[in-house]
From TrEMBL:
PANTHER family: TETRASPANIN. GO terms for cellular component: plasma membrane. This is Tetraspanin. The chain crosses the membrane at residues 12-34, 58-82, 89-113, 213-238. Belongs to the tetraspanin (TM4SF) family. It is a multi-pass membrane protein. The keyword Metal-binding does not apply. It comes from Xiphophorus maculatus.
Amino acid sequence: MCCTGFLKVMMFIFNGAIFLAGAAILGVGIWVTVDSDSLLGLVDKVVELPEDVFQLNYVGYVLIGVGAVLLIIGFLGCCGAIKESKCMLLTFFSLVLIIFIIEVAGGVVLFVFNDEVDQIFDSIENEVRTDIQKNYGNENDMTQVWNTTMEQFQCCGYKNYTDFEGSPFNNAGDRYPSPCCDGTGPCTSNAARTANIKGCFVKLLELLEENSAIIAGVALGIAALEIAAMVVSMVLYCNAGKKGK
C-alpha cells in the first residue's frame, strides 16, 4: 500500500509536469499563430518559394495540437492515478507510448536526412533574395516583418546586406536597413560592408548550435519523463487489477 501511494504521488508529479508543459506549448502555439510579426510570419510574406517551405507556416498549429494532446495526457494520468482507473491508465500508457515512438522516429529521420534539410534551406536563398529586392521598401507588411526580425536577431537580410541591393528601399537613396550597420549614421553601402553583419539564416543556425546542448538535454529529459511515466502507469495498472481481485 505504501509503495502504491508513492507511485500515485510520482504519477501525479509526472503528469502535473506534462500538463504544465502542454499548457506552455499550447500558449506558444497560439502566440506563433496570432503574431504576424514573429519570425514564422516572414515565411508567409515571402512569395514564389517552393511549396515545401510553406509547411513552416503550420508550426503554430502543430504546437497547438501537441499542447492540447499533452494537456489531455496529463489529465488522464492524474485522474487515472487518483481513481485507479485501469481504462484511464491504459489510455495514458498507450498515448505516451505512441508519442514516444513518434519522437524517436522523428529524431531518426532528422538525423538521416540532415543533408536534405540543409539543401532545402539552401535552395530557397535565391527566391528569398529575389523577393527582398522586389518588395523591401515597397510592401509595408513584408518590410515590417523583415525589420522586426533583423532587430530581434541582430542580423541583416537572409545572407547579408547585399540581399537589399536593387530593392525599392535601396534604390530610393542608396541606403540599407539600419540593422545592417553598426553606427547610428546613414547605413550606406560602405558602412554596411564594413559592419558585415551576419544574415538572419546564419544567425538562426548559430543560435541553434549554441543551444544544442540545452536542446539535447531537454529532449533527453522529456524522454526520461515519458519512460518513467509509462513504467509507473503500468505498475499502477497492474496493482489496480490485483486490488480488484
